[in-house]
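User: Modeling request: complex.
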Amino acid sequence: AQRVTQPEKLLSVFKGAPVELKCNYSYSGSPELFWYVQYSRQRLQLLLRHISRESIKGFTADLNKGETSFHLKKPFAQEEDSAMYYCALSGLAAGNKLTFGGGTRVLVKP
Amino acid sequence: GAVVSQHPSRVICKSGTSVKIECRSLDFQATTMFWYRQFPKQSLMLMATSNEGSKATYEQGVEKDKFLINHASLTLSTLTVTSAHPEDSSFYICSARDAGVATGELFFGEGSRLTVL
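Assistant: Request completed. Predicted assembly structure:
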């Protein structure tokens, strides 16, 4: 069965400090990994996906198959980054269904 | 980007009544929509996959007779919570994938908060 684990429920950092959200997964096959973000009172939206290998809003995430991780990083956090972040996994073996991690709330303090 | 709309955004009902939640893809066609449930301070749990023109596929532990899903057109899926009880109170979220786009990005609705008294 596929599983996504986000060990931190809350990350509190000061503005300008680096932030890293951990995500580990288990999946038998070639997964597709995503990070979704939910800002206050807004709907869930895609932040980035591993196949794109791009940086969105200063965030990057690298898929490490050896460690089965897909950690999200940003070198200098901004107050507007405060939100709920979900790591998610999809794959052919699971019918392309999206499985979410428990989520990490990021609070960026001024 | 593509927009998925849910209605109603909030609904309060008495125990024993049925509630219907609609999920519409506004500017794209979705052969597949997904229904999630989210409890307070918890993650999204997939309930079922709604397939246009055919029966929904339910996740293990989800009662199909309790949560009726209909996907009658390429832009509309409905979730009906039948004979709702207080334990059904939750945040229900739908998502859809644009059938015409190869990237397969999922777009989410704004969610519907159900409170059963």
